[in-house]
Amino acid sequence: xxxxxxxxxxxxxxxxxxxxxxxxxxxxxxxxxxxxxxxxxxxxxxxxxxxxxxxxxxxxxxxxxxxxxxxxxxxxxxxxxxxxxxxxxxxxxxxxxxxxxxxxxxxxxxxxxxxxxxxxxxxxxxxxxxxxxxxxxxxxxxxxxxxxxxxxxxxxxxxxxxxxxxxxxxxxxxxxxxxxxxxxxxxxxxxxxxxxxxxxxxxxxxxxxxxxxxxxxxxxxxxxxxxxxxxxxxxxxxxxxxxxxxxxxxxxxxxxxxxxxxxxxxxxxxxxxxxxxxxxxxxxxxxxxxxxxxxxxxxxxxxxxxxxxxxxxxxxxxxxxxxxxxxxxxxxxxxxxxxxxxxxxxxxxxxxxxxxxxxxxxxxxxxxxxxxxxxxxxxxxxxxxxxxxxxxxxxxxxxxxxxxxxxxxxxxxxxxxxxxx
Length: 421
Prior knowledge:
This is MFS transporter. It is found in: Cell membrane. Helices cover 81% and strands 0% of the residues. With 421 residues, it is mainly α. It has one domain: MFS general substrate transporter like domains (Growth Hormone, Chain: A, Up-down Bundle), CATH 1.20.1250.20. α13 packs across α16. The longest helix has 49 residues, at 356-404.
């Protein structure tokens, strides 16, 4: 009975989110486009792996091309997001992504694939920050953690369905059809976003930026983060975690394909693991959302969860039993949602509507070079000491972050000012 009452309590907490029709349409649009992208992700992995003859650094370079635009254009994107209607920024990004993705059908040269990947990511730099900046205006401030948790759960469902479909589509209907499906999903998303009517009060001036304004706007975004203790601490944690985790995706794929000798089954097993990750994340997102809403010391909560993540990720790397690996990934999904939920909640509750786009984009911009460095170091090291050993080092880095951040003066100051858990 107690468990049933608890589930009902959780349902009541999220009822205001579910009943918000505009928010649900935005989330539905993102679900559809993300589902298509999950499918084409497997197609792109296979295409690059075949064209590169299985070279690890080429897979890593693909990930770098995805991250590089956030570093180059992140600050500019934030300024645009805070000046223009975010709804139309999202719709335009979807349309452009559809055009870029469909071009992958006709390309069989690695250099051109990298360029197309760069272009797609350059367009997408604007979309997610625009959505994250707009959504808090659609709910009460105290419900922002629930918003992020619900959206995280939807993303996890996308992970489950997309991973299963991705492996199936690539296996049964081929790489080209996977790209067609992804392109169509972006068009559908753009149509849904285009039919939404929402008042965007942050729009003050749609004129072109005057000379010198760009630099001042960028500096203001950095200044807002640096002056606020919560944002500064979140940035510190985010950059450390990004370094530890950015290299994981290409290395796990290689770990499955070469260390575990799975060969052509690697995509299927990777899809199963990602699906189990998503199953765990659905439950974890909802629970963590409640915790983030109720507890003031969100940073301590996240660092404790990160320590658990380190331990169980180590178990995954050392394990050789598939069913146990699936169970471990499910648990990792359950606890692994905390990072983005807490990050988004801190930004959305702290930054004003007029500056929220700049803060989100600046976080992404500062995160990108760390991601690139991480991938370069991780994939290069894997050539010498194996993907398995690099992943074990990554797990150790996570544990050091979870323990080391507690020693910083910023964290200790925040901890003193909060009631704690």
